[in-house]
Amino acid sequence: xxxxxxxxxxxxxxxxxxxxxxxxxxxxxxxxxxxxxxxxxxxxxxxxxxxxxxxxxxxxxxxxxxxxxxxxxxxxxxxxxxxxxxxxxxxxxxxxxxxxxxxxxxxxxxxxxxxxxxxxxxxxxxxxxxxxxxxxxxxxxxxxxxxxxxxxxxxxxxxxxxxxxxxxxxxxxxxxxxxxxxxxxxxxxxxxxxxxxxxxxxxxxxxxxxxxxxxxxxxxxxxxxxxxxxxxxxxxxxxxxxxxxxxxxxxxxxxxxxxxxxxxxxxxxxxxxxxxxxxxxxxxxxxxxxxxxxxxxxxxxxxxxxxxxxxxxxxxxxxxxxxxxxxxxxxxxxxxxxxxxxxxxxxxxxxxxxxxxxxxxxxxxxxxxxxxxxxxxxxxxxxxxxxxxxxxxxxxxxxxxxxxxxxxxxxxxxxxxxxxxxxxxxxxxxxxxxxxxxxxxxxxxxxxxxxxxxxxxxxxxxxxxxxxxxxxxxxxxxxxxxxxxxxxxxxxxxxxxxxxxxxxxxxxxxxxxxxxxxxxxxxxxxxxxxxxxxxxxxxxxxxxxxxxxxxxxxxxxxxxxxxxxxxxxxxxxxxxxxxxxxxxxxxxxxxxxxx
Length: 595
Ligand code: ASP
Ligand code: MG
Description:
The protein is of the alpha+beta class. The chain has two domains: 3-245, Carbamate kinase; 254-385 and 439-589, VC0802-like (2-Layer Sandwich), CATH 3.30.2130. It contains 16 helices and 24 strands. The protein has helices spanning 16-31, 46-57, 63-87, 119-126, 153-164, 197-205, 213-222, 274-284, 313-327, 354-364, 388-398, 421-430, 464-474, 504-518, 544-555, 579-589; strands at 3-8, 35-40, 92-95, 102-104, 113-116, 130-134, 137-139, 145-147, 168-173, 194-196, 226-230, 238-241, 253-269, 290-294, 301-309, 331-344, 371-375, 378-384, 440-458, 479-486, 493-500, 522-537, 560-565, 569-575. The strands form four sheets. The chain has a twelve-stranded antiparallel beta sheet with strand order 14-15-13-16-18-17-20-21-19-22-24-23. It has an eight-stranded mixed beta sheet with strand order 3-6-2-1-9-11-12-10, sandwiched between helices. Residues 417-422 have low confidence and may be disordered. Magnesium ion binds at residues 9-10, 41, 151, 153.
């Protein structure tokens, strides 16, 4: 008999009528012959109300008490939903996180799931009940109540679907699916029928609010198909599965993160371990650094730029200041009027002109690009806040995201994607069953025979990146990583990219032409570099991955020349001669997480 997990978010249980409607959906599924587990969030804005109440009593409420308080929101909902099911003539039992055996670690307010015991749920289902489980909450070793972080009911639902081997996990919410970009920002955004786990992970971490990103990590790890749909309409919604909607379309979604800040530490001595000092000081404040760009040293000094959410700027600057002497850097600059505009697409890695198309679209819209980072399935640019909406619209249009791709798989064509079922089973059997949400690394590898080209003194105006990467693309050169970041006090930037060793000379020729055309300062290029790649699931939500990587390379005395990070990979470009050492030591440093 098939098993369905149905999750109802806060807006879907906001009042009595909605609770009854949710109950009817579950009963209907049960009458169709499914075993049904519901996961329910707190009613409406109840969690916010509880937070407000706590704030009135105490400026910094103890984390344990906060979780005790917030968990009551879900407890109210599950009881009411179970009552609604009873009054409609079916059987239901409500259970708290503790009662479903949702064991977590003890980091209150952001606890991670360790294990779930399914016996009780299965017994109740066998007896003909609909099980109504409280989302968002768990219990630690000492029976303290914990919560998984805001929006965490999605993660409860997908985790339950994973351990129960559910056939589907339906997420009922107030939007009718996943869109190519936030439709509140761009009305022409299109609802997609299908999106891949990897794309959804990137979009979720860029702030696309539809799903809690840890729930997608779970889904990917355990191969759970997620069906996002509206509680209030009968549209089909969006399936989140292993495959992308189209096999050819380079970009599937675009995102804009409005409130970012850029920090540049100027004149960092270009010796191993210096940037590590900066990043570990920031990591200690639990701030996730993004778009890290480390420029190649000139006269033995490098500039390190990165972005953080604007609300974290003050704390970040204090952390950087505290290590300035130890680092021996010259100064710190920052800009808090910047936004991040990104495109995401599973097919991007195999296509050539995606980056230059994005840069050209931005240039045509007269948008200046401050920073660029690329990874396998994502390109991010940092742009002036005042131009962020124009930039988002320009890239959305360039990649035709408002139109359904011709080769799109439709919702009804999506059967269960069991193609990689074997892999999933192998993966699950290797995961320790007491660490469901632990960091899972699938590999540490090196790519040798790489070369790097850097242009210094790139003028700070629209159109340069577009010109540069179009010219390079026209020359038939395939680029791997691109980073652009702050170079000098005059606002000029430097752009580095990597290519295969065999393409170095051609790349240098093109770079020299561009240099002459735009009056840049100089071009440098070198071989003897290699790329170290750490691959896995949830690399960004586990913020320590980048820190451990830096630390290990610093301990080995290895200088990091370029870095990029995504949900799927962390890449560092280093000296080729040290690549084997680095890979060996990283395998040792990550032994616990490596499958
Ligand atoms: N009630 C919690 C929140 O508002 C959990 C959830 O809704 O997923 O964040
Ligand atoms: Mg919610």
